[in-house]
Structure formats: structure tokens, C-alpha cells
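Sample intake sheet
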Amino acid sequence: MFEILVWIGAVLSIAGLCGLAWCIVRVLRARKQKLDDEALRAVVQSVLPYNLGALLLSMLGLMLVIVGVILG
């Protein structure tokens, strides 16, 4: 039964890592466009909530994995 927690946590962690990769790619593309400081700052500020959400999702997934392993 607790194996389900481990698998759900693994899926959430992978989704969070994919979100983090998306954030990195988005900022790197903006840097390659040679934007001025204000435009680059706007891109980074628009990506910041997604970055924090991806970190939260990954952390919750890892917590579920740990809880599933300890209880299982």
C-alpha cells in the first residue's frame, strides 16, 4: 500500500525536475537573445513563480517518497 506513495512521490519529483529544466531553458534562451537588462529582468521575474512552484512540487514528491519508504 505504501508503494503507491513512493511511486506518486517519484512522479511528482520528476515533474518538478522537468519544471526546473523548463525554467533553466527559458532563461538561457532569453540570455542568448542578448536582451537589455530590463527585458532580461522581466523574463527572469516571469519565470520565478514557476521556478518556486517546481521546487515545491519536487520537494513534496521527495517527502512522499521518504514517508512511503519509512512506513513501508
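Comment: The chain has a mean pLDDT of 95. The CA atoms of residues 16 and 54 lie 4 Å apart.
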